[in-house]
C-alpha cells in the first residue's frame, strides 16, 4: 500500500537496526540483533558484562507503544536500548472519577451519552463501565466522529445528547468544530463533557515526579505534533536536557527516531529533532490551534490517572460556549476516586513499572476483564504487552 | 348453487410486506411457503410436503452442522444473507472433511419486511444451493413483531457424509506440521464494514463468500495427511488459529509476509484501525498438514479456482503456553492473541 509499505519495509528496518547496534556499541563485535524465528532463547540477549551505556527512551504515545509491540521492534534493538512506555494513551490517563461522571449522566440524567470506542470499556466505580451501563439500559453510543454526535442530537431533539470528549491535542480540534457548529445551529440539546488533555503538561509531570523514572530522551508524539508542532517540546531539550525526536507511528519511523536519539545521546546533544517531517512542522497546524483557542481555555488543574493533579494540563470550554458544557448544564461534579489498590496503572503510566511487574497483570486483569485502564485500549501499555509481547516472559 | 373453485390472489411480491399472518400457521403462511420458498428451492424432498424430509440411507459417518446468520446490510458486494447462509453451513460441514448432502433453512422474519427482498434472498439461496449441488430439503418460518428482529435471520443446518478413513479435528495439530491458508484474508468482513461505513474504494471490496466443499474434496483426494481444516469466519484467522492451538495444546509461528491480503482490504483496515487477522472470511480455509506433504497440498490447492492464492503461512510449534506467534515483516516477533471484546477503531 502506497505511503504505508515504504514505512514497514523489513530490509530498511534491518539496516537501521544495524546502525543502531553500531552506534550503541561502536567497538563491539557485530552481534546481530536478528531474531531467532523459532522463538528459542529469546531473552538471552546478553546484557554485556562490559560497561555499555544504556539508553532509556520513553515513547510518550500509546500509538508508538502499539507499533513497537505489534511489529516486535524489541527484537531489532540491542539490549542496552530500553523503551519505556509513557502516558500518551487517552483512555489510560482518564481517572475513574471522570468515567463515573459520564456514567452518572447516562444513568441518572437519562442523556444519550456518546463517546469514542475504547472509552466504553474503561472500568469505573461500582464494577461499572459505560458498556455495562448500556447493558443495564442506559443509552450509551459509540461514535467514530464528533459529527456523529451532532447528528444524533439533531435526530433526537427531545433528548439531551452529551459527548464525552476525551483525548490529547489530536482529538481536540474536531470537538471544537462540533461545539462551534452546535452554537451556530442553535443546537440546544447538545453538550460535551470535556476531558481533553495536553501532552507537554504531562511530559513536564513525568520529569518532575518525585523519585520518577530516569530518562535519556523522548520519542515525541506523531499525531499530536501535527497539531501543536515541534516547538512546544523545546523546553524539554533546553531546560531539562532531554533529547526529543518526533516520530511517525510506522515501525520505520520509530526505528529511525531511536537511531537519532542514540546519536544525540552519544554526542551529548539535547535538541528537538523531527523524524516525522512528512506531517509535522515547527509551528504545527495554526488553523487547528486557533480553533481550539477560540473554543477552549486552560483548566486550572486536572486529575490524571497516574500523574495526579497536574496544573494547566487540560482544557474546558470558554464562557462563551458555557451552554455546551455538560458539567455546568447538569451540575455533575467531578468526584475523585482512588484506583484499585492492586493495580499498577499509575506507576506504569509514570514509566516506573512495566506491565509484567504488576501482580494482577494477566491473572485478574486481562483485556476481557480489565481492572486498570492500561489494559483497555490497544494503545495501553498493558494491553499492548498482553496482546503482543506476552511470549517474552515464557522463554 | 355451484361451489366456487378455490382461488386465492397470488402473493403480491412486488409491493407486499411480511405481516403477522405469515407466521400464524394459516393460509397466508402456507401461501408464503408455497409461492416464495418452495418455488425457489423446489426439489423432490421438499415437495414431499411433510413436517420433515425423508432422506435415503447415507453411505458413511454423518456430519451435521448448524449456523445462524444475522448480517447488516442484508445485501452486500459479493453476496447477501441468503447465499451466505448456504455457504456458511456448507463450509462447516466441509471442514469436517465431509461431502455435504442436504440443508435445512429456518427463517425468522420481521413484520414489515419487504416480500421482494425476501424473494431476492430466497432466490439467492436457491442459486447457491444449486451451484453447490446440495438441496434445501426442509424449513421453517416464523414472524416476529416489528422492532423485534432485524429484517430477517436465517438459520441453516447441513448434513453430510465423511469418506472412509478421514478424521479431521482441531486437536490433531502436531509440532512440525505446516499451516496453509487458501487465499487472502479479511475480504468478507471489510466488504460488510466498508458498505456499512459508506467507505468506497476505486475497486470495491467484494465478499469472498463461497462454498468450499469442492476444494476440500480436491485436498482430500491429494492424499496429503491432513490433520485440521477450519474456515476462519467470525474472529478471523487469528481466532481460528488460537482455537486450534488451544485444542491441540501446541503453539504456532506465522510469517506475516506469507499471509495474503488484498490491497483495498489492507487500506480499509488501515483506515479504520483494524487488523485483517481478526476480520471475518466466508470463503477461505486453514489447513494443517504433515510437513512432508505441505508442498504437494499447496500445489493441489493452487490448482483450484477458490485457492489460487494459497500459501504456507506458518508452522506448528511445541509450546506449553499455546502462543500463536507471528514473525513480522520487520523481522520482529509478537503474539497473535485472541480478540479481546470487539475490534474497535483507535482514538488517536
Can you put this structure into words, describing what you see?
- The complex is a heterodimer of chains A (395) and B (348).
- Chain A is an alpha/beta fold and 395 residues long.
- Helix content of chain A is 34%, strand content 15%.
- Chain A has two domains: 53-89 and 199-284 and 339-395, Rossmann fold (3-Layer(aba) Sandwich); 96-197 and 314-329, Rossmann fold.
- Chain A has a five-stranded parallel β-sheet with strand order 2-1-7-8-9, sandwiched between helices. Chain A has a four-stranded parallel β-sheet with strand order 4-3-5-6, sandwiched between helices.
- In chain A, α5 packs parallel to α6.
- Chain A starts with 9 loop residues before the first helix and ends in a 6-residue tail after the last helix.
- With 348 residues, chain B is an alpha+beta fold.
- Chain B has two domains: 20-162, 2-Layer Sandwich (60s Ribosomal Protein L30, Chain: A), CATH 3.30.1330; 178-335, Alpha-Beta Complex (Phosphoribosyl-aminoimidazole Synthetase, Chain A, domain 2), CATH 3.90.650.10.
- Chain B is built from eight helices and 13 strands.
- Chain B has helices at residues 27-41, 81-94, 115-132, 187-196, 213-221, 236-248, 263-272, 294-302, and strands at residues 61-69, 75-76, 79-80, 98-110, 136-144, 152-162, 178-181, 226-230, 251-255, 286-289, 311-317, 324-327, 333-335.
- A seven-stranded mixed β-sheet of chain B has the order 8-10-7-11-9-12-13. A four-stranded mixed β-sheet of chain B has the order 1-6-4-5. Chain B has a two-stranded antiparallel sheet with strand order 2-3.
- The longest helix of chain B is centred in the middle third of the chain and has 18 residues, at 115-132.
- The chains are: A alpha/beta (395), B alpha+beta (348).
- At the A-B interface, α1, α2 and α14 of A face α7, β12 and β13 of B.
